[in-house]
Every structure is written in structure tokens, then in C-alpha cells.
Design goal:
By secondary structure, the chain is α+β, with helices and mostly antiparallel strands. The protein has helices at about 5-10, 10-20, 35-45, 50-60, 95-100, 105-115, 130-140, 145-155, 165-175, 180-195, 205-215, 225-230, 235-240, 240-250, 255-265, 310-320, 320-360, 360-365, 375-385, 385-395, 425-440, 450-455, 465-475, 480-490; strands spanning about 65, 120, 280, 285-290, 295-300, 305-310, 400, 405, 415, 425. The strands form four sheets. It has a four-stranded mixed beta sheet with strand order 5-4-7-8, sandwiched between helices. α8 packs across α10 (about 180-195) and α16 (about 310-320) packs antiparallel against α17 (about 320-360). The longest helix has about 40 residues, at about 320-360.
């Protein structure tokens, strides 16, 4: 006799558990970047000095790479496998040739006779804030995605260590390679702010002081009062209104003084100590040229590293055994990738620069008041590039124009609506505000409300608080401050 029974009769719970366990096949799409694309993206976001250092490091580590024009043991030998063409030299001008074509004379004479002076910026070295933070990121237990976010934050810092870009801008700059939420960017930002120097990557001095106070031990004398002062009374502290601070914070004058001493011991500009203030002339990446048929763009060949393959090692590659061949073959592939990435970088820079020139012709001819509103999305649509690529191509890249040297980011600006339904660039509105203030009565300066009314009379719809924001961005004081300054000047000359 055979006794048969189902599994459920012996153990119904086990039967249900086993039935719940099953194999499922899922298909998931995941974006994976090739090494060549990763290198091209990295090179595009580098500034001139960083690109120079990157190429020099590649030259030092790769025997198959050399600068164009260097002598090879066999100059008649040519690498027939490498067929990538370089940018045409017909589109390149030297700085002196550009200045001459624009009627500005030579580089030296332009600053003396034409009043045209190249802007300068602090030189970056191995002790820069950027390199110091990147070094810390490499030593921190970041995930790959968090590490990419942290690096994007570091590249968005200004010279004082403040965060120059918004959370949305950083989030957008990571796409399409890395897709993250604003909350993820904010979480990583808080971790970066606690790195050395503490308070880096904050929006302003107020937030920087608050972060530094929060990082101090809880038993630090005056810490709690200083935190309240930084949050609620920094405006009174700047104006030196001690009595009003005591009243607002509802505490004693002794505690306020102790808190002020603690705040004064902090560093509101965490990036300043990494700035060695050695001036170096900004060398433009592109020239905006005024030609008979309109405006054009030319790359600056002084900024373009010209590389070639070393013929001797290529010959050696074809004659050596497998072990040596594998070693040289890897370096050959790296050299080709780098050369192609440099070509792609220049092409992207030219595409974006040409599109910018077509939009900003009026600015080049008439100045700030003629600046047109422009966003990354428009240039991306016209060039076929992604918005993040346009952002990388315009960050720390400079254009030499007849009106001066400008970062390519300068040509992008938000807009203000006009009465007839059109838009005007915020840069143009700032120029108009500066013009109104410069023409105001000496002892009766225009208030922000009056400036807003005059702009509305000219067709620009703008609120008083927006006028105040633009005026502060221009470094111009309020009407009360301007009135006090005028009175001081009058008394000084009395």
C-alpha cells in the first residue's frame, strides 16, 4: 500500500511559505558611461589652469604622448592608425592677432593706450581650497553617487568658499550621468559643510557662521547666545547696535559681548586662507570677432594643448614581444582617448560660443543695456547638446570681446517681463538701475520704490524688492546710505 499526502496536509504554513518564494526575471535599463565619455566630460569642465595640469600629468605618465613639435627619433614615421583630424588652424588667432584685428593694438599697448586691461584672478596651486576638499572627499566614505555630488559642489564654490550655484543647478549639472533628487544634494552639502575648513559651501556669511558655531563643543562659552545672534541679530551686530541686540535677544549685555567675541573668532570667508593672491592674467579661451559679415568666434590656440603620438614608441610597439606590446598598447589607447577628448572639448566650446554670439550681438555692440535674456536650455536645444554639457562648457571659460573679458556664464541671465508681454534681461535691468542712480539728484537719492516706478514707466514690470536685490548685487547702498555718503562728502569739502 502506498500512502500519499500533499505537503499542505503535513505543514500548511510551510507550504504557503514555499509558494511565496519564486524566481522573477526583471529587465532594468542602466546608463553606463564608457571611459572615453567620462574623460571627455571631465576635460570639458576643467578651467585653463586645471586643463594644463591634467595634460602635463598625462605627458609625464604616458611615454606615447608628446607635445606637438617635439622631435622624434624617427620623424619620417607616421601613425597611420590614428586618423582623427584636429581643429583647423584657420579658425585660430593669437591674442595679439585678435587685438590687432579689433583695432586694439598689441597686448602690451592695449592696456596703456586703449584702456583695455586684462582681468586677473588668483593663481591656483596644490594648496587651493578645491584640491584640499577633493582630497578629503577621496578619504571619506562616500558612495559613488555621493562622491559625484560632493565634487560638483566643490566645483561650484567661489573664491571665498561660498556656494555660487543653487541646489537645482548642481542637480542639473550631474545629469544625465547621475540622476539625483534635491534632497540627496542637500544631504551631501551638509556633509561637505562640515569638512575642513568648517563652513565651506554655505550660501553666505550668516549660514557659514551658524555652521561653524554648530560644530563647536556644546560647553563653549557663549555658543548658544552666539547661535541666536547669528540667526536673529546679525543685522544689528553689523550696525553696532548693542542695546537693540540686548532687547531683541532678551539677554544681558555681558552675554552679548561674549557671543560677539566668539563670532569674531570665526572665519566668515572659509576659502580666503587658501587664496595666495598671486595675480595671473586671465587668458581667454575664445575670441568674439567682429567681421564684415557679422560676429564670429575663434579658439585661442594658446589655450589648446597640442599633442601628438611619439613615433619611436609606436615603432617599438610593433617590434616588441607580447608583454611589452600589451604595456604600450594600453598607453596608446589612453593617448588616443585624450587627444580625441581634447578635440571634442574644443568642438563643444566652439558650438556653445557661436550660439551665444548669435543671441548676444546687441550686447557686443551696445553694452549691458542691450543684453538679451538667455538660459542654458535654449543653447542646448540649438546645439543638440545636453544642458549639463552647456553648463560645463561655460563654467570658468572666458571670452575676449571688444567690451572686455567675460566668463561665458555672464551671457546667461534671467528675465524680467515688460508691459507689452516681452522680456528683458536682468543684466540689462541692472544696467538701467545703475544709470538711474548715477543721474539722481545729489542730496535727494532715489528710493527703491521710486526706481521701480520709473522702470515701470519705461515699460519694465519690476517690484521694489527686486530693485533692492539688483541694487545690492551691484554693490550700491540704499538711498539712506547714499544720502549719508553725500553729506559726508559735502562736509569734507566744506
Amino acid at each position: 500500500m502506498y500512502i500519499s499526502a500533499t505537503l499542505s496536509e503535513f505543514n500548511p504554513g510551510l507550504h504557503t511559505k514555499l509558494m511565496a518564494q519564486r524566481l522573477q526575471l526583471k529587465l532594468k535599463q542602466q546608463l553606463s558611461m564608457a571611459p572615453q565619455l567620462q574623460q571627455a566630460i571631465k576635460l570639458l569642465q576643467l578651467g585653463r589652469l586645471e586643463l594644463r595640469d591634467y595634460v602635463q600629468e598625462a605627458l609625464d605618465s604616458n611615454p606615447l604622448l608628446e607635445r606637438e613639435g617635439e622631435e622624434s627619433p624617427d620623424p619620417d614615421f607616421a601613425d597611420t592608425d590614428f586618423v582623427e583630424s584636429k581643429e583647423s588652424s584657420a579658425d585660430e588667432l593669437s591674442t595679439e592677432e585678435w587685438l590687432s584685428s579689433q583695432g586694439l593694438g598689441s597686448t602690451q599697448s592695449s592696456s596703456a593706450s586703449s584702456g583695455y586691461i586684462l582681468d586677473s584672478l588668483p593663481d591656483q596651486d596644490d594648496a587651493s581650497l578645491q584640491s584640499h576638499l577633493l582630497w578629503q572627499i577621496n578619504l571619506t566614505s562616500f558612495s559613488d553617487i555621493d562622491s559625484a555630488i560632493a565634487e560638483a559642489i566643490v566645483f561650484a564654490l567661489d573664491g571665498d568658499g561660498y556656494l555660487a550655484d543653487s541646489i537645482e543647478d548642481i542637480q542639473q549639472s550631474l545629469q544625465p550621468e547621475v540622476s539625483v533628487s534635491a534632497a540627496e544634494v542637500t544631504a551631501v552639502l551638509h556633509r561637505v559643510q562640515r569638512m575642513e575648513p568648517v563652513g565651506v559651501a554655505c550660501a553666505d556669511a550668516r549660514e557659514c557662521i551658524q555652521v561653524q558655531l554648530a560644530a563647536l563643543p556644546q560647553d563653549t562659552p557663549g555658543r548658544n547666545t552666539a547661535a541666536r545672534l547669528a540667526r536673529d541679530g546679525l543685522d544689528l551686530l553689523i550696525d553696532g547696535q548693542l542695546d537693540q541686540l540686548v532687547e531683541r535677544l532678551n539677554t544681558s549685555k555681558e552675554k552679548i559681548i561674549l557671543a560677539i567675541e566668539l563670532i569674531q573668532s570665526l572665519e566668515p570667508r572659509p576659502g580666503s586662507r587658501y587664496d595666495n593672491r598671486r595675480d595671473e592674467y586671465i587668458v581667454p579661451d575664445v575670441y568674439f570677432l567682429q567681421q564684415d559679415e557679422g560676429w564670429g568666434v575663434s579658439l585661442n590656440p594658446e589655450n589648446e594643448p597640442k599633442l601628438q603620438l611619439n613615433n619611436y614608441y609606436i615603432q617599438l610597439l610593433r617590434s616588441e614581444g607580447k608583454k611589452e606590446s600589451d604595456y604600450l598598447q594600453g598607453h596608446l589607447q589612453e593617448a588616443r582617448w585624450l587627444m580625441n577628448a581634447l578635440i571634442l572639448r574644443n568642438r563643444s566650446l566652439m558650438l556653445v560660443s557661436n550660439a551665444i554670439v548669435q543671441h548676444q550681438k546687441k550686447f557686443l555692440e551696445d553694452g549691458d543695456k542691450a543684453m538679451q535674456p538667455l538660459v542654458l536650455r535654449e543653447i542646448a536645444a540649438e546645439t543638440g547638446l545636453h544642458e549639463s554639457t552647456v553648463s560645463r562648457a561655460t563654467t570658468r571659460k572666458y571670452a575676449l570681446t571688444p567690451r572686455g573679458i567675460f566668463e561665458l556664464k555672464y551671457f546667461f541671465s534671467s528675465h524680467v517681463n515688460t508691459q507689452d508681454g516681452k522680456t528683458v534681461s536682468s543684466v540689462a535691468v541692472k544696467a538701467r538701475i545703475a544709470e538711474l542712480i548715477s543721474a539722481e539728484p545729489v542730496l535727494k537719492p532715489l528710493s527703491d520704490l521710486k526706481i521701480s516706478e520709473q522702470l515701470q514707466d519705461s515699460g519694465i514690470r519690476i517690484a521694489r524688492r527686486t530693485v533692492a536685490k539688483y541694487r545690492e548685487a551691484l554693490g550700491i547702498g540704499s538711498s539712506a546710505e547714499r544720502r549719508r555718503n553725500q553729506r559726508r562728502e559735502k562736509l569734507r569739502h566744506f
